[in-house]
Amino acid sequence: MIKKQIAEIAIIGGSGFYDFFGKDAKEIEIKTKFGKPSDKIIIGEVFGKRVAFLPRHGKNHQFPPHKIPYKANIAALKEIGVQIIIAPSAVGSLKEKIKPGDFVICDQFIDRTKYREHTFFHGPKVAHIEMAYPYCEDLRKTAVALAKKLGFRAHAKGTVAVVEGPRFSTVAESIFYSKMGCDVINMTQYPEVALAAEQGICYLNISLVTDYDAGIYAGKKVKPVSVEEVFTNFKKNTAKLKKLISEIIKNLPAERTCDCQKKAERAKI
Questions:
Q1: What pTM value is reported for the model?
Q2: Which residues are catalytic?
């Protein structure tokens, strides 16, 4: 039960968003029945709307992808009244046409994780959430239109392979994911998107391409992906990412008309 609606919109992202709200931002600390979220939640205002920011990996990047407290993160945002999550993430490209610096507004995922808590429903309450179209279609359309308006290279859809991590893929794995029909690869989008869906929260992913994955490099005289390359390219494009997210927040409608909340209600037995 939400005691007070502190923020309606949330950003789950990296440390580059700590200055997103300016000097008037405030920190709040929340503990859920699933434990503490990755870090304190920052609350600020963007275009007159109350927005929360939660660093996915923690302020000091102390949580690797497979140890992020995904359930606590989503539960904490739900508790403060969040109805919309905008979730930027770094991804590697599995297709030559998807280049570093591009945005991909993902519409599908393939889950290749192994050890993650990926549902709130372990009984006696049971729910089967619909995942045919996991990302909020209304938010996706808004993001694609605004990226085009801003002149950013953005792919209107894409399938992301979500791997366990924290290691990067072998060349064979990368080629396999590409042949499976995946466009990009990432370590954090699942179970974040599914948990948000179970709570009736609209979820938008904005994938920022930081590198070509190992399979693209096969047979070419180019070094495979490295941590340094990922962080350098993400930081290089953070300003564009912030601009796009700001415009999305500015143009969000007053009321949700999507199916996200209804899907969560239909899921419960």
A1: 0.95
A2: 211, 213
